[in-house]
Design goal:
The chain is mainly beta. 7% of the residues lie in helices and 43% in strands. A hairpin with a 6-residue loop joins strand 8 and strand 9.
Length: 289
């Protein structure tokens, strides 16, 4: 059975399979529509690109039991939904390991005919970013080698079918990791690099160089977040040991593409082996699987 729940921005969870929580009777989470932008021709059109509107899911919830119990359950659920709206902080619907963020911004509640033993709540979930997201986490420790690269491989290997866009000055394989993104849309990511890094930070993803010319002291960490939903002043920051934040957006190297998304399929990450790295990839799908 699918693990299906709603988590409000307060962190309150509702099991959508359970009548003692908020039983979801029906919803169409697999309804997908892409909107073509076209140029008209004499016969038909030419598609220039596809866009995707915010996702809207009509949902029907059912509550049963004595009227007092139903009233408490419905009031609790609606309070959390409207608290999300009031704070403009989205909740999320979770389907197994995937989630979509948004708001229950419409609702209507009424008893149904059969003996008045059920109460239905009709609601609509509005998702401004119309994708389901699955997070994949990877970690590389300082000086760690992957099992598929011998630790004594140095420099530019002539015996391997590998080409680089520019010359690398570090041992091949040091701080390296393979990954696979199971989505045609690729993935944004959030990377955390742990200091010290006295010469600044650099790493490579699929031959794209990411470099920030800001030296890290012991205890500091650099966070790079490529997601469009992340505020610009939080996309490239240093977090101090006391949790204060330094915006280092202007320290990004002009020769690197700091917020380039990862393409779908397989790829490699190289962390130069000089510092510990944590990476979370945000894999996007139109519908949950």
């Amino acid at each position: 059975m699918v693990d299906l729940k709603y988590i409000s921005s307060n962190g309150i969870e509702f099991d959508l399979h359970d009548f003692d929580s908020a039983k979801l009777f029906k919803a169409d989470f697999h309804n997908v529509a892409w909107k073509p932008e076209v140029v008209k021709k004499q016969y038909g059109t030419t598609v220039t690109r596809f866009t995707k509107d915010p996702q809207k899911y009509p949902c029907t919830f059912r509550f049963k039991g004595d009227p007092a119990k139903r009233k408490t359950q419905i009031d609790t659920f609606i309070f959390e939904c409207e608290n999300d709206v009031a704070k403009q902080q989205p909740g999320r619907i979770v389907w197994n390991q995937q989630y979509i963020q948004g708001y229950f911004n419409q609702h209507d509640c009424y008893p149904i005919e059969s003996g008045m033993t059920w109460t239905e709540l009709e609601a609509e979930f509005y998702a401004p970013f119309p994708f389901w997201v699955e997070e994949q986490f990877y970690s590389i420790k300082k000086g760690e080698y992957p099992s598929w690269v011998p630790a004594d491989v140095k420099g530019y290997p002539s015996d391997r079918n590998i080409r680089y866009a520019y010359t690398y000055s570090y041992p091949y394989g040091q701080g390296a990791m393979e990954y696979y993104i199971d989505s045609p849309f690729g993935a944004d990511f959030r990377t955390i690099i742990y200091g010290p890094a006295p010469s600044g930070v650099q790493f490579i993803v699929n031959d794209n160089l990411y470099r920030v010319n800001y030296p890290l002291r012991t205890g500091q960490k650099l966070i790079v977040d490529t997601r469009d939903t992340t505020p610009i002043d939080l996309k490239c920051i240093v977090v101090n040991p006391d949790d204060t934040i330094i915006n280092v957006f202007d320290y990004r190297d002009p020769d690197s593409i700091l917020f380039e998304r990862m393409p779908g399929g397989g790829g490699s990450f190289y962390g130069y082996g000089e510092y510990d790295v944590d990476m979370t990839m945000y894999i996007e799908r139109s519908a949950p699987i």
